[in-house]
Amino acid sequence: MKLVNGELAPRYDVVVLGSGASGLAAAAVAARKGKKVLVLEKASLLGGTSAVSGGMIWVPATTHAAAAGNPDTLDEAATYVRAVARGRGREELLDAAVHYGPETLTFLEEECGMRFIFLDDFPDYRQDLPGASAGGRTLEPELFDGTVLGDLIDHVRTDGRAPFTMQEYERWGAFTKFPWDELAERQKKGLLAKGRALVAGLLASCVRDGVDVAIEARALTLRTSDNGVDGVILEDGTAVTADNVVVATGGFEWDKKLADSMVQSRIYTQCSPPSNTGDGLRMAQRIGSMTRGTREAWWAPMSVIPGDLRDGEQIGSLLRFERQGPGSLMVNRNGVRFANESQNYNDLARALHSWDSPNNRTLNSPVHVVFDTTYLKQYGVFAHRYGQPTPEYLIEAPTLAELAAKIHVPAEALEATVARFNGFAEQGVDSDFGRGESAYDKYWGDQDNPWPNPSLAPLTEGPFYALPVVNGVFGTNGGIATDGEGRVLDVDGQAIAGLYAVGNVTESAYAAGYPGAGATLGPILVFGYRIGQAIAA
After folding, report:
1. Peptide bond into 366 cis (omega under 30)
2. d(CA 366, CA 409)
3. What pairs with residue 388 in β-bridges?
4. For residues 96 and 79, what is the distance between their CA atoms, to the nearest angstrom?
5. How do 495-501 and 239-247 pair as beta strands?
6. Confidence label for 145 from pLDDT (cuts 50, 70 and 90)
7. Measured between alpha carbons, how far is 467 from 322 in angstroms, rounded to an integer?
8. I want to staple 193 with a disulfide (CB 3.0 to 4.6 A). Which of 163, 248, 349, 456 is the partner?
9. DSSP letters spanning 171-214
10. CA 333, 335, 336: angle at the middle one, nearest 5?
11. Is 207 helix (H, G, I), strand (E, B) or coil?
12. With bands split at pLDDT 50, 70 and 90, how would you rate the model's confidence at 361?
């Protein structure tokens, strides 16, 4: 264990296991209410999955929305979330996540000094469902001055990217349009963005209120007495006494055997820190906690770019504009399209492990994004730009037939698929899957696209390229069962005294649903807030 802020005390009111946004929120709220708090992080860097995320939060009916004249209501949001969850979410969790969202945001801003950007035009992911909003439920942290943390900022995990906001990312679209000189200047000034800004802002609040923080502090055992949980024992044998323990250790996606035994489909890659191996889930199970929702994960289509590492381990890279930009499409193992490529990543990824069609019982995977030279010139792909040597993760061929041979799909099918798609692009209407129809699709398209639909453009100029796509996750999102205040429940549904849990180590409030951008972080910040308040009370 290595303390990076404060000194180890003989006893704490609260010990938080994990330093992602949810755990830090619980710590910040409890500390603001006068509690003595210790945060223990297993890894050598703080921030967990939150720090490498987009940092967006989905919170409906906020004061920001009201000030902007957005007529959103909590009842409409709850109707929408219930539809997204398809009846599988527990009402207690769903109601708490939705209805305490505005209160949580206000506390983070007024008490913790957080500042957020209101994204009034960012649409909910499922525009086809009742209660969906065309914008105003997603926010993200403003750029944060990391220098206020002093040397502590060196211990905060980074995604390795320049400090641009997600609002800017969506406005600029492809990386070929980014103002890289301006972003380099921001970096020199110590400005942070996205998930790192969110974590740093919460951490700054914790530091101001005297929270002790340690890294390389892996907890393995929850210590119990007749009164419930009263502390933790670390891997190095250190015992920490506390009145309350908050488990916020992240998911179990990096434990392949555990994930294969629980999650509904194979996880081929992930972009979270490798420290997410299910420690918190096991600790809670050992003392009798109930588990729920372990079949689920935050799914996303990803590509594996060799050398893209996190803590020395290969990770996956999320596909955004690579599949949503006009002039690219996705084909399955049969060389045909199988879904709207521009839809939200969670639903698209589920299609990757679905059947091709009711009559052709073969899985869609393996899947490839296919694009042409015109697309590459206009947008690039990940860090690759037109004119550079083709990287090993891209497959190149002078014709579609030759590309088909290289990716092992029928040439006739791929040629026919591209020809049909080109016709849709010229007309501006995708008659097969409706790509480019919803507000969400259009939001992620290219408004400068010369073709009728910002999400569609033909593929005509060789050489042609294919990018392999696999089913990846941001993290698992099932595990420890809690009540609406984050208290851990035993197998009989009774709260275990002194024990709370929050974040991806717990059952998701939205079950299999993904309402919109920030639906991972929004509800877990709410439960972090609820836990801090419950402990303070």
Report:
1. yes
2. 10
3. none
4. 14
5. parallel
6. very high
7. 9
8. 163
9. HH-SGGGS-HHHHHHHHHHTEE-HHHHHHHHHHHHHHHTT-EEE
10. 110
11. helix
12. low
Q: How far apart are CA 137 and CA 515, in angstroms?
A: 10
Tokens found for residue 502: 């929050």
| 401 phi/psi in degrees, rounded to 5 | -65, -40
To which H or E segment does residue 363 belong? strand 360-363
How far is it, in rounded angstroms, from Cα 471 to Cα 314?
15
Asked if 136 and 70 count as a contact pair (C-beta separation under 8 A), the reply is yes
Q: Omega into 60 within 30° of 0, i.e. cis?
A: no
Tokens 């921030």, located at residue: 47
3-class state of residue 46 by DSSP: strand
Closest by CA position to 340, among listed 429, 427, 404, 269: 429
Phi-psi region of 80 (alpha: psi -120 to 50; beta: other; left: phi over 0): alpha
Instruction: Find the Cα–Cα–Cα–Cα dihedral 341, 346, 351, 352, rounded to 10°.
Output: 90
Coil, strand, or helix at residue 317? strand
| DSSP code string of 419-441 | HHHHHHHHHT--TTT-TT-SHHH
**CA separation for the pair 37, 320 (Å, rounded):** 39
> Do residues 200 and 30 lie in contact, with contact meaning Cβ atoms separated by under 8 Å?
no
What is the rounded CA–CA span in Å between residue 396 and residue 290?
A: 50
Check the CA dihedral 106-108-112-115 and report its sign. negative
What pLDDT, on the 0 to 100 scale, is given for residue 87?
A: 82
For residues 516 and 323, give the distance between their C-alpha atoms in angstroms, rounded to a whole number. Answer: 18
Q: 193 is written with which tokens?
A: 């963005």
Higher-pLDDT residue of 167, 361: 167
Q: Which two tokens stand for residue 91?
A: 């009402």
Does pLDDT of 359 surpass 80? no
Quickly state the pLDDT bin for 364 (edges 50, 70, 90).
Answer: confident
| Contact between 326 and 174 (Cβ < 8 Å) | no
Q: Is 479 helix (H, G, I), strand (E, B) or coil?
A: strand
- C-alpha torsion angle, residues 100, 102, 108, 114 (rounded to 10): 150
CA–CA distance, 52 with 36 (Å, rounded to integer): 28
Instruction: Report the alpha-carbon distance of residue 11 to residue 243 in Å, rounded.
Output: 8
pLDDT band at 170 (very low <50, low <70, confident <90, very high): confident
Specify the pTM.
0.96
Buried b / exposed e over 162-200, threshold 16 CB at 10 Å, is bbbbbbbbbeebbbeeeeeeebeebeeeebbbbbbbbbb
Written as one letter, the residue type at 173 is G
Pair of tokens at residue 129: 């469902």
